[in-house]
Amino acid sequence: MSERPRLVRTIAEVRQSVHEARRQGRQVALVPTMGYLHEGHLALVERARQEADCVVVSIFVNPLQFGPREDFASYPRDLDRDLDLLRRQGMADVVFAPSVEEMYPRPIRTEVSLPALSDRLCGRSRPGHFTGVATVVSKLFHIVQPDVACFGQKDGQQLAIIQRMVADLNFPVRIVGVPTVREPDGLAKSSRNVYLTPEEREHAVVLYRTLSWAKDAILAGERRADAIRQGMRDRIAADPVARLDYAEVVSMPDLEPVERVEGDIMLAVAAYFGKARLIDNFQFHVDP
């Protein structure tokens, strides 16, 4: 009996693995990742296993979604560690870990772009990022052809963009959003947390505390979005280590800034702690 998960490096190999699963009548779930896995990724794999009986985890640090001054070269990579975590969890069947040359054997001339959803929040400080994300996810959907794909709610804007891409382009794949996994003090699990110094790690929890303050204010009756935005900005700006990127209140799933807090909303924050740029959000429904 072969050890699970099976590591494949080429498009042909992963397609063959999926073909074999389908021949056995199995449903296929995809968990796209950039590797350096943590408990948040493992939660995606666990949910994928609940949704389907063949789970493919992709591990690919996608150069298209990194800007020229971002951390593509230094982004943490450790495939052996990732495989060990997945083996110990025992829920993934296939790990697809292609090279950049396998995914992009020639300069890519095709892009998938959703500018109306990408030009705000993280897209303001990371131009081109979500075009890179949508393009690589589109490629992965075509390569693997999953029945279901699981994405973390921590990347709330990304999740909204993928859901809209799937709807607009009629991908036959169901998208499942999985709740954010957090440290005991509330900090969202992230591969980029490895960049934090001990002091920065201590201060990074201001993002979670700010979101918690905002949600509590809303549940207590505050409906003025500007008051919530300003309160979030003030709290992050007051931290001596954090450097605010944004603090927003937007509607879901269209990511439009709101004047009045009601309906399905997302509280979204981003800030720099040293060289680490961290994001977080709360998504919930607010009665009028």
UniProtKB/TrEMBL annotation:
Beta-alanine binds at residue 65. The active site is at 41 (proton donor). Pfam families: Pantoate_ligase. ATP binds at residues 34-41, 152-155, 181, 189-192. Keywords: ATP-binding, Cytoplasm, Ligase, Nucleotide-binding, Pantothenate biosynthesis. It comes from the Bacteria. Its EC number is 6.3.2.1. Pathway: Cofactor biosynthesis; (R)-pantothenate biosynthesis; (R)-pantothenate from (R)-pantoate and beta-alanine: step 1/1. InterPro entries: Cyt_trans-like (IPR004821), Pantoate_ligase (IPR003721), Pantoate_ligase_C (IPR042176), Rossmann-like_a/b/a_fold (IPR014729). It catalyses: (R)-pantoate + beta-alanine + ATP = (R)-pantothenate + AMP + diphosphate + H(+). This is Pantothenate synthetase. It comes from Alicyclobacillus sendaiensis PA2.
